[in-house]
Amino acid sequence: MVRSKLTAFRQALQAGDFLITAEVAPPKGTNPAHMIDMAKQLKGRVHSVNITDGSRAVMRMSSLVSALLLLEEGIEPVYQVACRDRNAIGLQADLLGAHALGIRNVLALTGDPVKAGDHPKSRPVFELESVRLLQMITKMNSGFDWTDHALTDGETDLCVGAAVDPQCGSWSGLTRRFERKVEAGAQFFQSQLVTDFDRLDKFMTEIAAKVWVLRIISLVLLSPHPVMVPNPFTVGQSVQSDRFIGRTAELATAFDQITSKGNLAVWGSPGIGKSSFLNVLADPQAWRVRNYDPTGAVIVRLSCLDSVPFSPEKFWREVLTQIQDYADDDAIVAEAKLILDQNNSSKDGLRQVLRTVGKSDRYLILLVDDYDAALRIQPGYDENAIASFVSDCRNLCSHARESQYLSMVVTSLRRLNELGPKLQIGGSPWYNHYLFLPLKTFTPNEVAALLGDLNFLMTPALRDGIREMTNGHPALIQCAGNLLHRELRQNLPSGKNPDPYAFAEDFRSMTLHLYEASWQLATEVEQSLMMLVALIHLKGQLQNKRYDLGELDLIFSQKERELSNLVEQGILTTKSRSGEFKYAFASSMMEWWVVEEMENSTEETLRDRQKVFLNLMSHRQSEAVINAIRWLWTNKEELPTILGWLAKVVTAFPKGIL
Fold it and tell me: Rounded distance, CA 644 to CA 48, Å?
């Protein structure tokens, strides 16, 4: 029986009325009572109620059935349809069924990645994404299915919309996707949560108004403070691909290498976003969003830290196991299983699987995180074993006939030429089949995009303080944003200003391991250069001249390569605060860490450090530096406190928040 359709939403849309919608989630179980009760409270107050379709990839009751339940209560639904779980046949079948049941409003979505939800091992479909789903529904409204066959029993009459995020980090990407959705037949748009009203206004005037004359329905946070919004900042884990920001050029390079069956070595400091970068490369939906085709790709993602102590046999076994578990081609799965059953977990075993991959017109993408762990001597894994392993990787990626079916992407904390086996005279570099790609600190635009919803709550002074404190380092920005969001949530509802002392101390505690890791990963020469830079800048901060370091210009001119490494890692910058010295710390917190390291040194560690200093400078200069460090031990009260190092952000706090 075809139920009567409600058209209030479409009528208001076509009349240009001010539209209000709300959203409810289907139950995670069989009882829809709570969902219906929530929707009933909205009845008469909104034009329609959205029914989510597996939002955040969490399994819930069918959005189609849930929409029907609301329709039977006299509540007009917007039926959300995601491409993640159904192919073109299933999507069309559900849309025909929705129309037959009287459901007329549809929101076409790509869908959140499976890994984000409660069934991370489920296999996603993603035969279509949101733009092609819009095209499909437009065809069905014209009386034809996706393959241009006539709908002989009647066409659909669906009012179809799409999603848009005015706060998207890429303005050009936002424009391109919006225009494509308009061309595909979108009749209305619904936005993500909007808190940046300047960004929304810019989107409406510069993008929406120029290409479209229908409706944008924005979800706007009415409270001036985000007290009810979950903390959006990710701390202590990699960022999922649907929340990844920036790195546009780097991702383009990576996708170009992968699709041409090339190899890539991504490197960068701790927390710079290497694992998050791999999350994008591993997500077929992220490929489609960026207009790359994942068809034919068999994607394997692993970390060498999961096989500690590392062994090649464990590494190849994990690669083969993932192929067996996740490849969607029966022949490839069977071949991987055969190799595993034969206990042939080796480079040659993978070559055998790659031949089947090639015969199936597929190719393997091997995403290897924390490759450093495979390049360190460990129990049962000596220099010869390391040399043999990297030689096997090079053979697979470069010399073997099967290399045409393989692309390998690895991440490490330093360039590969600074790690692993030393080159032999006359030998070929074991890493020369990789294109090297550094991940650097974020640009100001990327920082603004990452801070997202907090931007409109900050004055320029506070934003400058955050930038100086973090130097655009993604993990540090996430920590600062997380703490700032927490301070706002805890203090502003009661009219209090956030506590700068608590913020500074908590930021120090939360990020200490990142600075410690950067320090420990530096070579002895790099550490010594950091000490010299810190002493020079600290001397300028003190009211009176307290120590004399002598002339150090020659030392820095002779160590340009090491200093350039520190600049590339985001530790130093060539833009001095005072203009009197070429190098300065990019992050005030890293400078604080180095000063703390000198304060806490001992005579024994200082003697060891002096040996390094003597390789950099004269004996007289070395003694001057050692005496300056000793001066720090006995004059700690003259040094800036943690609040002093974070002076910009701390002084901006009381007047920097609305």
Answer: 53
In angstroms, rounded to a whole number, what is the distance separating the alpha carbons of residues 414 and 266?
Answer: 9
> Tell me, what DSSP letter sits at residue 207?
I
Among the listed residues 539, 340, 519, the one whose alpha carbon sits nearest the alpha carbon of residue 413: 519
**Helix spans in 164-268 (H):** 171-184, 197-203, 209-211, 248-259
Q: What percent helix, strand, coil does the chain show, rounded to 5?
A: 55, 10, 35
Alpha-carbon gap, residue 83 to 104, rounded angstroms: 18
What does DSSP say about strands 572-573 and 584-585: parallel, antiparallel, or unpaired?
A: antiparallel
8 A C-beta contact, residue 534 and residue 594: yes
3-state SS, 389-424, equals HHHHHHHHHHHCHHHHHEEEEEEECCCHHHCCCCCC
Sign of the Cα pseudo-torsion (313, 316, 319, 321, in order): negative
List phi, psi (to 5°) of 207.
Answer: -120, -60
Distance CA 434, CA 300 (A): 18
For residues 651 and 192, give the distance between their C-alpha atoms in angstroms, rounded to a whole number.
33
Report residue 366: phi and psi, to 5°.
-105, 105
CA distances from 12 to 7, 53, 184, 307 (A): 9, 24, 22, 59
3-state helix/strand/coil string of 467-534: HHHHCCCHHHHHHHHHHHHHHHHHHHHHCCCCCHHHHHHHHHHHHHHHHHHHHHHCCHHHHHHHHHHH
Amino acid of residue 538: L
Helices (H), 553-646: 553-558, 560-568, 588-599, 603-616, 619-634, 642-645
Q: Is the peptide bond before 224 cis (omega within 30 degrees of 0)?
A: no
Beta bridge partners of 367: 301, 409
Residue 435 and residue 410 in contact, taking contact as beta carbons nearer than 8 Å: no
Mean pLDDT, consecutive 10-residue segments, the chain of 658 residues?
A: 59 77 89 90 86 90 96 94 95 96 94 81 90 96 95 94 82 82 90 70 76 50 46 84 88 95 94 94 90 92 90 95 92 95 93 96 96 92 94 93 96 92 83 94 83 66 76 89 79 62 81 88 91 82 64 82 87 67 80 86 88 88 87 76 61 52
DSSP code of 101?
A: T
The pLDDT tens digits of the residues spanning 443-491 come to: 888 887 888 767 656 666 677 777 777 888 999 999 988 888 887 777 6
Distance of CA 363 to the CA centre of its chain: 25
- CA distance between the termini of the chain: 56
Do 281 and 409 touch, CB atoms closer than 8 A?
Answer: yes
